[in-house]
Write a structure and sequence with these properties.
Blueprint lengths: L8 H11 L1 H5 L6 E6 L5 E6 L8 E3 L7 E4 L13 E4 L3 H8 L2 H8 L4 E4 L5
Parallel strand pairs: 2-5
Antiparallel strand pairs: 1-2, 1-4, 3-4, 5-6
């Protein structure tokens, strides 16, 4: 199924909550996770600023050949300072992403995008 009428993250979130209410309620904003590379051990700490789905693995941009794997939201990660955040794209960014069939599938299933945290204290 391809979404074409969605233009804002609010419309997409309403679609997700209307079509999968129990599943949608399980997601929480503010959860932290750690992704560690299996090659160079470099890691990032993520926080979810919107409800949604995050991947189990990410490519490592530090060594470029490894794969960062999710630590699955362990309690100890909640005390760490995030370096990256998971967010739901909006506006033109969302419309552009939904043009790609693979990305469309990711976002209609609740997928989030990742970006560096602007102000890491």
């Amino acid at each position: 199924m391809k979404i074409t009428k969605v233009q804002t993250k609010e419309q997409l979130e309403k679609y997700l909550s209307d079509t999968h209410p129990a599943w949608w309620e399980a997601f929480r904003v503010g959860r932290k996770n750690m992704y560690r590379c299996n090659n160079c051990s470099h890691f990032i700490v993520t926080i979810e600023v919107d409800r949604g789905v995050t991947p189990m693995m990410l490519s490592c941009d530090s060594c470029t050949i490894g794969t960062r794997r999710s630590g699955f939201y362990l309690d100890g990660y909640q005390k760490l300072t995030p370096t990256h955040e998971w967010y739901r794209p909006d506006g033109d960014e969302l419309l552009e992403l939904l043009e790609d069939p693979q990305a469309n599938d990711h976002y209609i299933r609740g997928g989030l995008s990742i970006r560096p945290v602007e102000d890491v204290s």
